[in-house]
């Protein structure tokens, strides 16, 4: 594990706006046009006599270069100890250091990698082996925690973890396995949490085998975005997130671990009363109105997205180094063309048959009668067939306008945040689960923020929530957006998920067999409302099926989709595609 570099502070150049910087070690090498500002903090790369090669962390000026430590006996830079900072200053320093590091790059892996999931390997971020389940965490123990927290810069170098205890499984969510555990420090401090939480991979066995295959192969490398959000931006986000302690992922095994503070759900924290943890697609459990919760989520998400454009989170170039940005994709990289750009005709026909039978037959009792008629099922098949053959074109369309693209959270639902109320009973929020953080269409993201809410609420408030997003986004640095465009991006995203959802029908029956469905008459039936095998996927699949059907039926989708196809074909100068007849 690399030691933390020596930190320096610029103390010279007060009367000149900073000190001179050159491209090379020699004092005759080319000089930069701008100076390194007084007060800037820099990390030492190399020190050769009185010449320092640096990497800038704070302040203004060149991001790297060479400077003189002294000149004619006068100090221009002074060494600074990491422990000379307050906890908040140390947090900003850590994030600045991480932003100055090179980005890691995931190399695609195949099924053969799963043969290595039981092996230890070094992580991509910090170059050290790490635990990937409760057993390896206990085995590697407090010595590993100490080294890991030091490597991540989350524990002062003069402190250490002395004990790990009460390691146990935590049930909730569906993206990965989770554990909670307690630690003790040699030197306790208010800003060091003793109750910790860790995300780890699903075991490649039993009922979670398919989940592990999906996360390690189909969604491989997703953990990089979450780790980056924590390590790069914790000090800069405009709301609370859990304190980050360590995170890493192995490209050799797909194992990972992400350690943060444990959110005290349902407890009192100082003057604040924490809400209990909420589950997606169970809004009837919210301890307040849906408006209160969802408008709050929209405001914090919009603020975050606007700050991307204002560059108050970080320079856009820095974020683009660490997170994918759909605006940087060329027109030829979207896979568009006159052919079917979705799943094959054979695959689609098999899946739409299963999906339509689920809606009009197996689960008919939980769907509104208006979406189970033969007329609607015909419309449902035609709409999803159109969405499928124009799959690549939809992705491009939603990302074609740069002003609608921003960095933000990918799944800002009620189960990916934590809420609390202060003495004034005002609701506030912190944000978790950053795996989908990237720079892309905000209309697309907004669907993934809201798809877990009740459709009756969504139907009544969609325009108001999107208008709220537009207002807050612009106030914080984003462009003025048009409601109609944003809503159509949102709708296309929902319909695209509708196609993807067709493939989930076999999983639905695996979690709730067909024989159960004749007696299930609403979504609150425990057989579909509760977590199954510790996962929330069944409940989400069912609700999203209903929401997609109602969007098609109640948002005038057929006519709007036909008009969109016409506009797209005129723009692309291509004939309309042949729709698969289901």
Compile the SSE list and pairings.
Blueprint: E1 7-10, E2 41-48, E3 51-56, E4 64-68, E5 70-71, E6 74-75, E7 77-80, H1 87-100, H2 134-152, E8 161-169, E9 177-185, E10 195-200, H3 209-218, H4 222-233, E11 244-249, E12 256-261, E13 268-269, E14 272-274, H5 290-310, H6 316-322, H7 345-362, H8 374-389, H9 391-398, E15 405-408, E16 417-421, E17 427-431, E18 438-441, H10 442-450, H11 455-475, H12 483-501, H13 505-511, H14 526-529, H15 537-554, H16 557-572
Antiparallel strand pairs: 1-2, 1-7, 2-3, 3-4, 5-6, 8-9, 9-10, 10-12, 11-12, 13-14, 14-16, 15-18, 16-17
**Poorly predicted runs:** none
**Total beta strand runs:** 18
Span between N and C termini?
A: 57 Å
- SS strand fraction: 15-25%
Mean pLDDT: 95
Category from helices, strands and their pairing: alpha+beta
Largest sheet: 5 strands, antiparallel
Integer-rounded radius of gyration = 26 Å
Enumerate how many helices there are, as a single number. Answer: 16
């Amino acid at each position: 594990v690399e030691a933390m570099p020596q930190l320096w502070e610029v103390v010279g150049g007060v009367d000149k706006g900073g000190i001179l910087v050159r491209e090379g070690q020699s004092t005759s090498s080319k000089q930069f046009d701008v100076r390194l500002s007084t007060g800037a903090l820099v990390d030492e790369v190399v020190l050769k006599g009185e010449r320092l090669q640096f990497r800038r962390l704070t302040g203004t000026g060149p991001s790297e270069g060479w400077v003189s430590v002294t000149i004619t006996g006068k100090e221009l830079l002074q060494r600074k100890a990491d422990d000379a900072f307050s906890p908040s200053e140390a947090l900003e320093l850590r994030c600045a250091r991480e932003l100055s590091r090179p980005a890691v790059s995931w190399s695609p892996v195949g099924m053969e990698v799963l043969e290595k999931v039981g092996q230890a390997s070094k992580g991509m971020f910090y170059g050290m082996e790490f635990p990937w389940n409760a057993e390896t965490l206990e085995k590697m123990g407090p010595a590993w925690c100490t080294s890991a927290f030091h490597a991540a810069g989350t524990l002062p170098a003069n402190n250490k973890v002395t004990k790990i205890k009460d390691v146990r499984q935590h049930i909730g969510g569906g993206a990965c396995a989770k554990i909670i555990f307690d630690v003790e420090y040699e030197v306790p401090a208010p800003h060091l949490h003793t109750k910790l939480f860790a995300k780890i991979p699903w075991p490649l066995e039993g009922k979670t085998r398919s989940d592990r295959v999906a996360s390690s192969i189909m969604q491989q490398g997703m953990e990089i975005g979450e780790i980056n959000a924590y390590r790069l931006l914790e000090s800069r986000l405009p709301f609370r997130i859990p304190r980050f302690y360590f995170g890493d992922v192995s490209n050799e095994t797909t194992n990972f671990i992400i350690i943060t503070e444990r959110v005290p759900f349902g407890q009192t924290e100082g003057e604040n009363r924490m809400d209990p943890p909420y589950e997606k697609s169970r809004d009837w459990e919210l301890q307040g109105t849906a408006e209160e919760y969802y408008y709050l989520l929209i405001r914090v998400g919009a603020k975050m997205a606007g700050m991307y454009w204002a560059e108050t989170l970080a320079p856009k170039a820095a974020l683009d180094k660490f997170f994918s940005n759909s605006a940087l994709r060329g027109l030829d990289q979207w896979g568009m063309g006159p052919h079917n750009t979705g799943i094959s005709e054979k695959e689609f026909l098999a899946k739409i048959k299963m999906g339509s039978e689920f809606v009009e037959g197996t689960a008919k009792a939980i769907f509104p009668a208006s979406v189970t008629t033969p007329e609607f099922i015909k419309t449902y098949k035609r709409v999803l067939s159109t969405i499928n053959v124009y799959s690549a074109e939809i992705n491009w369309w939603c990302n074609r306008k740069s002003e609608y693209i921003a960095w933000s959270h990918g799944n800002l639902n009620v189960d990916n945040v934590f809420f609390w109320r202060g003495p004034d009973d005002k609701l506030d929020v912190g944000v978790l689960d950053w795996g989908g953080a990237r720079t892309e269409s905000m209309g697309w993201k907004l669907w993934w923020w809201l798809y877990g809410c009740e459709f009756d609420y969504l139907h009544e408030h969609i325009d108001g929530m999107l208008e709220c997003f537009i207002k807050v986004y612009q106030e914080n640095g984003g462009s003025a957006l048009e409601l109609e465009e944003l809503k159509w991006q949102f709708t296309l995203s929902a319909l695209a998920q509708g196609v993807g959802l067709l493939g989930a029908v076999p999983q639905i029956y695996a979690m709730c067999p067909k024989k159960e469905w004749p007696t299930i008459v609403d979504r609150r039936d425990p057989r579909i409302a509760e977590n199954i095998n510790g996962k929330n996927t069944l409940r989400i699949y069912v609700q999203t099926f209903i929401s997609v059907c109602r969007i098609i039926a109640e948002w005038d989708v057929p006519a709007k989709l036909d008009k969109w196809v016409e506009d797209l074909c005129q723009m692309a100068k291509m004939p309309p595609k042949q729709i698969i007849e289901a």
